[in-house]
Amino acid sequence: MYRFLLSRRWAFIALLVLLLVPTMVKLGFWQYHRHEARVARNELIAQSLTAPAVPFETLSRPGAAVPKDLTWRTVNATGVYDPAAEFVIRNRTEPGGSSIGYFVITPLRLADGAGTVLVNRGWVDSAGDATSYPTVPAPPTGQVSATGRLRGDESAESLGTKKRGKLPDRQYQVIDSHEQAERLGTPVLGGFLELTASTPAQGSAPTLLAEPDHSSIGAHMAYAVQWWLFAGMLPVGMVVLARREARDRAAEAAKAAAGVAGTPEPVTT
Q1: β strands within the chain, DSSP E
Q2: d(CA 105, CA 111)
Q3: What is the pTM of this model?
Q4: Nearest to 86 by CA among 149, 166, 175
Q5: Bridge-partner residues for 81, per DSSP?
Q6: pLDDT tens sequence across 13-61
Q7: Secondary structure of 198-229 in HEC code, one letter for each residue
Q8: Domain boundaries, the chain
């Protein structure tokens, strides 16, 4: 009854199923691992955001990269802002909105002489002009205590953008401590501080950035289950298809046999 399974067509179907099943299983595990990574990332961010603040200079040093497991850690820095060295980062989205503007980065010279920390004081509107320096509220004068989130240096590659050529004066594409150390001619600690609070307060200040989303886990687990279900359905579907074809062939054979049996014998004279 099932000799048709030896046909070329069914050999191709079986080969296709044998190739697709492990591929779908592998894709399911890929999505599952992405789910695990997202959960671990969210837990790390939550722990970092709620951890007691530590001095910025204890987690970073000039010319060094910020370890990924320290990103988003609550830090503070005490020193004096250098408004003359302030600069902006182009093409950044308004927190919670869709308007395009600038991040305002003001170097903070640490009181203990450990170097300079780049402080992202927040977002300002571009006012539709991307060629001139935007209107930026001045930072507090005198000694300032800044509290915020530790972030690593940016690059065009990490942001998924192309590196641009010469930009207008004091405008940059990414926050890069190495680039700013060369510009300022002074040691700049790696990474930057994403401001959340300041003493004294900033007053009329740029819009502070919101903390990262660490509650959503995405749909990776659902995608993993879907891939595994598809992998399990293929062999089942193959069996169902084979049984249906066998049944159809048996029905056709019975019909043909009945037709032959019902054929009248020729009349001889």
Answers
A1: 54-55, 74-81, 87-93, 100-110, 116-125, 143-151, 171-172, 192-199
A2: 18
A3: 0.73
A4: 175
A5: 108
A6: 889 899 999 999 999 999 999 988 888 888 887 887 888 899 999 999 9
A7: EECCCCCCCECCCCCCCCCCCCHHHHHHHHHH
A8: 7-50+217-247, 54-199
